[in-house]
């Protein structure tokens, strides 16, 4: 889908440091949440090119940004991942259950689950509503660097440095 004012790679917004990750914000207007090398987390309006909001609190550059809805954002980094309330401009929770950096995040299409993959070779499944850990998917012999949910939210794909792709049943954990 092209925005009428920003077609063909023209326009947009500029940052002060290299962008490390970004995600569209499903909201009125044409907004994006960006993370950059200087530990900045910002909401930018692509129509005007202006910053809408800064979200302070990143302690390191984010390796992934996911925006599951217009209200929330998730960022992954070397010390876990964080949940942010966009309009309030604040971090809600820091999840640090991985033993090492979090390299991948995915939110299920139904908005119920968050999966995090890390350098500890594990995938952790979280309930986004109550922010509790549901289960761990173990089986990779290398870092988990890619995650994707099926459209019905019942399956999770994981990619790893061990050169494998695995399919997991979300309800069963197998």
Notes on the protein architecture:
With 174 residues, this protein is mainly beta. The protein has a domain at 97-174: Beta Barrel (Thrombin, subunit H), CATH 2.40.10. It has strands at 19-25, 31-36, 41-45, 50-54, 64-66, 72-77, 80-85, 90-95, 102-107, 113-118, 123-127, 132-137, 144-149, 155-160, 165-169. The protein has a 4-stranded antiparallel β-sheet with strand order 1-2-3-4, with no helix packed on it. The termini are far apart. The model is unreliable at 1-7 (pLDDT under 50).
Brief summary of the model shown:
This protein has 174 residues and is mostly beta strands. 0% of the residues lie in helices and 48% in strands.
Keywords:
Thrombin, subunit H, four-stranded antiparallel sheet, mainly beta, disordered N terminus, single chain, 174 residues, globular
Q: What is the secondary structure topology, with strand pairs?
A:
Blueprint: E1 19-25, E2 31-36, E3 41-45, E4 50-54, E5 64-66, E6 72-77, E7 80-85, E8 90-95, E9 102-107, E10 113-118, E11 123-127, E12 132-137, E13 144-149, E14 155-160, E15 165-169
Antiparallel strand pairs: 1-2, 2-3, 3-4, 5-6, 6-7, 7-8, 9-10, 10-11, 11-12, 13-14, 14-15
Order of helices and strands: EEEEEEEEEEEEEEE
* N-end to C-end Cα span: 36 Å
Query: What general form does the structure show?
Result: globular
Q: Regarding quaternary structure, how should these chains be classified?
A: single chain
What is the topology, as strand order, of the major beta sheet?
A: 1-2-3-4
Number of helices: 0
Radius of gyration: 16 Å
CATH fold-level assignment of the domain at 97-174:
Thrombin, subunit H
- Summarize the amount of helix as a percent range: under 10%
Query: Would you tell me the structural class of the helices and strands?
Result: mainly beta
So, CATH architecture of the domain at 97-174?
Beta Barrel
Number of strands: 15
């Amino acid at each position: 889908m092209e925005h009428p004012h920003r077609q063909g790679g023209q326009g947009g917004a500029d940052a002060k440091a290299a962008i490390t990750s970004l995600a569209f914000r499903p909201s009125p207007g044409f907004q994006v949440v960006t993370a950059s090398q200087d530990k900045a987390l910002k909401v930018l309006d692509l129509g005007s090119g202006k910053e809408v909001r800064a979200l302070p609190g990143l302690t390191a550059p984010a390796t992934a940004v996911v925006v599951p809805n217009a209200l929330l954002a998730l960022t992954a980094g070397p010390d876990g991942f964080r949940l942010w309330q966009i309009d309030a401009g604040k971090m809600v929770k820091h999840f640090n259950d991985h033993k090492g950096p979090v390299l991948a995040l995915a939110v299920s299409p139904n908005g119920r689950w968050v999966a995090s993959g890390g350098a500890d070779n594990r995938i952790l499944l979280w309930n986004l509503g109550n922010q509790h850990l549901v289960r761990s998917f173990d089986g990779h012999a290398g870092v988990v660097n890619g995650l994707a949910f099926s459209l019905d939210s019942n399956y999770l794909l994981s990619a790893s440095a061990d050169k494998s792709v695995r399919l997991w049943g979300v309800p069963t954990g197998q």
